Amino acid sequence: MTTILDGKKCSEKRLELTKEKIEESGLYPRLATVIVGSDPASQMYVRMKHKACERVGIGSVGIELPEDATTDAVLDAVRRLNADDDINGILVQLPLPKGIDTEQIIDAISPAKDVDGYHPENMGLLFSGKPRFSSCTPKGIMTLLEEYQIPLSGARAVVVGRSIDVGRPMAALLLNADATVTICHSRTKDLAEELKRADILVSAIGKAHFITPAMVKQGAVVIDVGINQLDGKLVGDVDFAAVSGIASAITPVPGGVGPMTIATLMENTFMAAKEQVCGSAE
Ligand SMILES: NC(=O)c1ccc[n+]([C@@H]2O[C@H](COP(=O)([O-])OP(=O)(O)OC[C@H]3O[C@@H](n4cnc5c(N)ncnc54)[C@H](OP(=O)(O)O)[C@@H]3O)[C@@H](O)[C@H]2O)c1
Question: How far is the CA of 187 from the centre of ligand 1 (A)?
């Protein structure tokens, strides 16, 4: 029987836990979001993040900049938030409009407030096996795998995608959990061959129903990060109906990885507040 990895249910549990921990700590963590332009998907994600903050007892402020904002204007907003002692976490919603130097913006975020974990310092710590802030989507996936007691040590994990927000940190987290990791991308030769060997398959490509049963090993655990529109419906990278017949466990879209990302952002923001106020995240 195939297990559906229920990210919605797991994220509810995690949000409740974070809320309790924040109450116990007596802290009032605060997250600032920065959004540039009016992309409807980005606006929706930011709204969901603010709603989650409210639910767990994190204060949130939203900085909105126009579509034609310059890199300097975004840098200015980030630097002001870096200097603001009332702000513990900073999240710049990606993707930024064309013309803005995303790398420069990420590099400008104070590593101590970088709750998305994209800053090179945090990425370096993650890859050296001493993570501070790990990117929310991959870290949320690790929490989901743990919740369902999916064994990772010695497992052959294949990650498709090498972005800084998903593919790369996902590979590092799986490696830190003692999996044997392969990273695939658009230049990978014979992708199906690589995927067929995966005990754990993570797809972060952004192409609807790209992963078919012919690419999946019988009994594999399949994690679908993709969010795509197909015939007016939200679908993942994985052909869920066909692949769930082969997989031992699989995440649905929606209701799989997405909710875990937001729950993890709350955990990272609380962690940042503890580190800044108490000098330690413990
Ligand atoms: N659920 C969530 O919370 C969440 C969070 C973040 C992202 N997402 C979704 O996850 C997907 C990926 O996001 P992302 O930010 O990682 O995207 P991205 O930056 O566009 O990266 C996509 C990756 O897929 C690889 N790729 C593209 N076509 C391929 C192919 N035919 N074969 C093999 N690899 C291929 C690309 O390879 P190259 O590097 O060679 O170009 C790239 O590394 C999107 O649908 C996004 O919306 C979901």
Answer: 13
Catalytic residue (choose from 114, 116, 199, 239)? 116
Mind listing the domains of the chain with CATH numbers? 26-112 (3.40.50.10860), 136-257 (3.40.50.720)
Cis status, amide bond into 95, omega within 30 of 0: yes
> Tell me, what's the pLDDT at 280?
82
- Side-chain-side CA neighbours of 185 within 13 Å: the count stands at 10
- C-beta of 114 in contact with ligand 1 (< 6 A): no
**pTM for the model:** 0.98
The pLDDT tens digits for 15-68 are 999 999 999 999 999 999 999 999 999 999 999 999 999 999 999 999 999 999
Across 205-256, the runs of DSSP E, i.e. the strands, are 221-224, 228-230, 233-235, 249-250
Catalytic residue list contains 116? yes
Question: With bands split at pLDDT 50, 70 and 90, how would you rate the model's confidence at 282?
Answer: confident
pLDDT single digits (tens) 246-261: 999 999 999 999 999 9
Side chain identity at 107, as an amino acid letter? D
Of the candidates 175, 177, 214, the residue with the CA atom closest to the CA atom of residue 194: 214
Output the residue whose Cα is nearest ligand 1's atom 29: 186
Q: How far apart are CA 4 and CA 237, in angstroms?
A: 16
Assess whether 107 carries a catalytic annotation: no
> Helices 40-56 and 257-278, interaxial angle, to 10°?
60
pLDDT at 248: 98
Clarify whether 218 is annotated catalytic: no
- Rounded Cα distance between 45 and 39, Å, is 10
